[in-house]
Amino acid sequence: MKNEKKIEKEVLNKQSQHWENTFSRKKDMFGLKASYSAQAAAKKFKNEGKKKILELGGGQGRDTIFLAQNGFEVYVLDYCETGVEAINEKTEAMNLSDSITAKCHDLRDPLPFADQEFDACYSHMLYCMAFTTAELEFLSSEINRILKPNGLNIYTARNTNDADYGTGIHCGEDMYKVGGFVVHFFSRDKVEHLAKGFEIDEISEFEEGGLPRKLFLVTLRKNNN
Prior knowledge:
By secondary structure, the chain is an alpha/beta fold. The chain has one domain: Rossmann fold, CATH 3.40.50. The protein has helices at 9-13, 15-25, 36-47, 62-69, 81-93, 133-146, 188-193, and strands at residues 52-56, 73-78, 100-104, 118-123, 147-158, 169-170, 175-178, 181-184, 198-208, 213-222. The strands form 2 sheets. It has a 7-stranded mixed β-sheet. Strands 6-7-8 form a 3-stranded antiparallel β-sheet.
């Protein structure tokens, strides 16, 4: 695999505090409107009758709120206490406590749920955070474990066509520290590599933000064989 520089684990481990500081300074950092990917995922989930959703890396909750308002039961995990607090505040203010459960959790550890507990999993730019490939392999296996048969995993990740790819400080593998944030950029080969235990329903591309960021939108279906 290219870019086999030694992984800068100390740099990766400091990302949690960087996100805590950023969320503390910037309320609704990503805006209030649901992302394109959340809207696409909600449509897919509705069409297939998926109800119980696990969201990973919920940030400050813009997609969490959207999913709950569209009738889904949402469990959301994030490793930033500040983000979880923001989600809980919005949940209470919008009377969505029956639809949203938010907890702080490091996704490098096993997911705190039973086997086959969820209909679907959703995450927006969680995969392209400061995770090594080995950590992403483990996370993917955990997502597969907690999904019901025929369960969906829909995620997004910035890809190697993104203007920031190859810029900033190289942190090992395809990870670069840009503007203080470590980004793990995805190739199609990486998407396919991380799909073990799943069938790939679709890999599409879209753009978001002012750069713009270039992302994959990946839809995986649990392989029941």
